[in-house]
Inverse folding.
C-alpha cells in the first residue's frame, strides 16, 4: 500500500497491462517523449520503447483510425484523446466505425480498444477544454463508458477496460489528476459496470461521478451535521450501468439525487432518473432531483466557473431542502 | 384574485399528497394513508408514520395454551369434583395456584384479584367469586368452594358474591370432559378450564436414570384470554406458572 496520485495511477494501470500483454500499445499526442500533456504516461516510453508507445501528429481522426485498425488486426491499443472536447472532431470514427463494427460484422471482428481522455472542468480551461462529455458517449450503442474517481479505481478500471473485448471510453477527470490516495500494491483488476457505495446512509441516495464524488461526500459530511444521513454512490461506469447497486440504494432511502458536472439537458442523471422512476416508483418518497451545471457553455472566469459547477454547498442545501419539503 | 394566496393554497395541498412509497406501504398494510397522522415536514406522512400505524393494527396470534398437570394426589375422580384423599378438590388446588400466579411477574399485578368459580347450580352454570384466595390454602378453598356450590344449588348465593371477576376457574372433569376451553366473558382477562384427572401411561425417569413407563394421574388445564388485555406469550407464561404450582409436591 502506497500513496499514489491519480495521474500516476493512469501510467501505473497502463504499465500493468503492457507488462502482462505485449499486444497492448499506447498511441496519442505527446504521450511518449513528453509523458503526456497531463503527465499521465510518464515513464512508459522508457519502459516499453517507441514501437509500443507512439507519438502522433495533431489529428484525432488519425489517432483513432490507427487505433481501430490495430485493434481489428490483433493488438489491444490504448489511444489518448488529450481533451475530451476533441471527441467532437472524431465522432464519425467512434460512432459509425468503432462502436458498430462488432455488430455489423456479426461478431466476427471485435474492437478491443480503450480511448482514454482528459475530461471535465474546474481548471479554468474555458468552454472548449473543460467539458464533461460522458453523456455524449453513453448515448452511443456499442461503446462502454467508465469514469474513475480515485487512483485505485484508475488502475483497476484501466485494467478491466484493456481486457474487455469492446471499445471502452475511459474518462479521466482533469480536476482529479493531482489528487492522491493509498493504492494497494500489486496488480489491480476491477470490473466494468460496477458502482461503489462510498458512504452508506439511509436518508437519501446521492449519485456522483468523477470530480463530483468528492463534492457529494463533502456535502454528505455537512448533511450529517444537520441530522441527515446520505448515502453517496460513485457511479463509476455509465455503460454498463450498475442498476442493482443504484436502485437497491434508492429503494432503501426513498430519495434520489444526482450530482452531474455535465450541462443539464440529457445529462447522465436524467437517464438514471428515468430508470428509477420506471423501476423504483413505489419506493420513492419524494421527487428525484438532479443537481447539474446549467445548460451553458462553461465560462473561463474563475468566479463564474465556480458558480456554475455543482458545489458541495449546493448539493447539501438542495438535499436538505428537498428532505424538509 | 390575490396571486400569493393562490400559491400558498396549492403549496399546502401539495404537502398533504402522499409519496409513492407511502401509498405503497399503506396499501401493503391495508391502511388508508389519509388516516395516518403525519409527523413529517408540513404534516407529511413519513415512512415511520406508516410503520407505526401498521404496528398498531397488527394482530398477534391468539392462542389457547394447554398444559398437562400431574394430579397424582387426586384419588376420587367419579364425583362431580376430583378429590385428594384429604378431600381437597383439584378445583381448589388450581384456584390456589391461579391466585398465586396472578400476583407474580407475568401475572396480573401485585394486588389479589377476585377469582370466579364456575359452578353447576343444577340449573345452569353460575360464577360466584372468591376474593381472598391468596389467604386460603387448598383445604380452606375446598371448604369455600363446596359451600358456594351447595348454596348455588340452593339458589342461596347473594348478589355480592356474583359480581364480576377478572379470572375464572372452572372444572368440568367430573363430567368426563378431558380438554376444553372456556372463553372469558366480556370484561374478563382470562378463563381457565380444568379437564378430568385420568390415569395415563407416561414416560418417567427413574432414580437410576433409566426411562420407564408409569401410570400417572393427569389433567389438562387450558387458558383462554382477552387478546386486548394480554398476548399469547403472557398467557402461556401465566399458565406455566399455574402448572408449576399445581405440581408442587407431585412427581
Amino acid at each position: 500500500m502506497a500513496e499514489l496520485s491519480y495521474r500516476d495511477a493512469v501510467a501505473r494501470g497502463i504499465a500493468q497491462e503492457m507488462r502482462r500483454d505485449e499486444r497492448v500499445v499506447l498511441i496519442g499526442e505527446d504521450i511518449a517523449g513528453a509523458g503526456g500533456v497531463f503527465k499521465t504516461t510518464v515513464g512508459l516510453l522508457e519502459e516499453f520503447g517507441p514501437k509500443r508507445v507512439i507519438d502522433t501528429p495533431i489529428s484525432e481522426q488519425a489517432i483513432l483510425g490507427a487505433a481501430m485498425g490495430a485493434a481489428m488486426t490483433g493488438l489491444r491499443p490504448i489511444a489518448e484523446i488529450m481533451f475530451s472536447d476533441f471527441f467532437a472532431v472524431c465522432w464519425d470514427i467512434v460512432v459509425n466505425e468503432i462502436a458498430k463494427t462488432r455488430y455489423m460484422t456479426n461478431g466476427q471482428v471485435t474492437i478491443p480498444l480503450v480511448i482514454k481522455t482528459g475530461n471535465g472542468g474546474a481548471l479554468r480551461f474555458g468552454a472548449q477544454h473543460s467539458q464533461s462529455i460522458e453523456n455524449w458517449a453513453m448515448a452511443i450503442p456499442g461503446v462502454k463508458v467508465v469514469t474513475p474517481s480515485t487512483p485505485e479505481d484508475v488502475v483497476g478500471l484501466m485494467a478491466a477496460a484493456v481486457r474487455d473485448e469492446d471499445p471502452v471510453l475511459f474518462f479521466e477527470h482533469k480536476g482529479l489528476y493531482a489528487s492522491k490516495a493509498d493504492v494497494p500494491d500489486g496488480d489491480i483488476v476491477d470490473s466494468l459496470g460496477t458502482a461503489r457505495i462510498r458512504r452508506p446512509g439511509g436518508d437519501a441516495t446521492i449519485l456522483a461521478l468523477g470530480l463530483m464524488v468528492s463534492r457529494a461526500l463533502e456535502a454528505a459530511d455537512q448533511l450529517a451535521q444537520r441530522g441527515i444521513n446520505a448515502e453517496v454512490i460513485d457511479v463509476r461506469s455509465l455503460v454498463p450501468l450498475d442498476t442493482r447497486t443504484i436502485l437497491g440504494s434508492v429503494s432503501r432511502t426513498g430519495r434520489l439525487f444526482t450530482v452531474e458536472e455535465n450541462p443539464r439537458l440529457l445529462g447522465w442523471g436524467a437517464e438514471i432518473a428515468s430508470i428509477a422512476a420506471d423501476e423504483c416508483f413505489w419506493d420513492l418518497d419524494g421527487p428525484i432531483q438532479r443537481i447539474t451545471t446549467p445548460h451553458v457553455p462553461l465560462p473561463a472566469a474563475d468566479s463564474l466557473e465556480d458558480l456554475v459547477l455543482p458545489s458541495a454547498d449546493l448539493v447539501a442545501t438542495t438535499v436538505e431542502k428537498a428532505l424538509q419539503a | 384574485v390575490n396571486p400569493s394566496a393562490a400559491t400558498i393554497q396549492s403549496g399546502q395541498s401539495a404537502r398533504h399528497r402522499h409519496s409513492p412509497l407511502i401509498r405503497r406501504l399503506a396499501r401493503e398494510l391495508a391502511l388508508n394513508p389519509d388516516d395516518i397522522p403525519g409527523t413529517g415536514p408540513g404534516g407529511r406522512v413519513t415512512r415511520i408514520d406508516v410503520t407505526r400505524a401498521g404496528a398498531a393494527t397488527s394482530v398477534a396470534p391468539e392462542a389457547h395454551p394447554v398444559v398437562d398437570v400431574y394430579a397424582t394426589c387426586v384419588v376420587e375422580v367419579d364425583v362431580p369434583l376430583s378429590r385428594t384423599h384429604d378431600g381437597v378438590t383439584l378445583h381448589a388446588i388450581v384456584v390456589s395456584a391461579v391466585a398465586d400466579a396472578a400476583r407474580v411477574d407475568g401475572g396480573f399485578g401485585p394486588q389479589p384479584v377476585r377469582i370466579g368459580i364456575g359452578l353447576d347450580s343444577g340449573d345452569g352454570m353460575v360464577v360466584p367469586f372468591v376474593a381472598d384466595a391468596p389467604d386460603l390454602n387448598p383445604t380452606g378453598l375446598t371448604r369455600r368452594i363446596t359451600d358456594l356450590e351447595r348454596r348455588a344449588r340452593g339458589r342461596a348465593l347473594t348478589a355480592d358474591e356474583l359480581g364480576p371477576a377478572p379470572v375464572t376457574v372452572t372444572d368440568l372433569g367430573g363430567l368426563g370432559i378431558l380438554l376444553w376451553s372456556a372463553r372469558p366473558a366480556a370484561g374478563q382477562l382470562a378463563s381457565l378450564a380444568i379437564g378430568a384427572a385420568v390415569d395415563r401411561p407416561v414416560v418417567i425417569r427413574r432414580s437410576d436414570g433409566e426411562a420407564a413407563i408409569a401410570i400417572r394421574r393427569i389433567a389438562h388445564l387450558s387458558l383462554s384470554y382477552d387478546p386486548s388485555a394480554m398476548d399469547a406469550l403472557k398467557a402461556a407464561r401465566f399458565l406455566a406458572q399455574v402448572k408449576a404450582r399445581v405440581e408442587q409436591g407431585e412427581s
Notes: The interface with chain B takes residues 254, 281-286, 323-325 of chain A (CB under 8 Å). The longest strand of chain A covers residues 76-83.
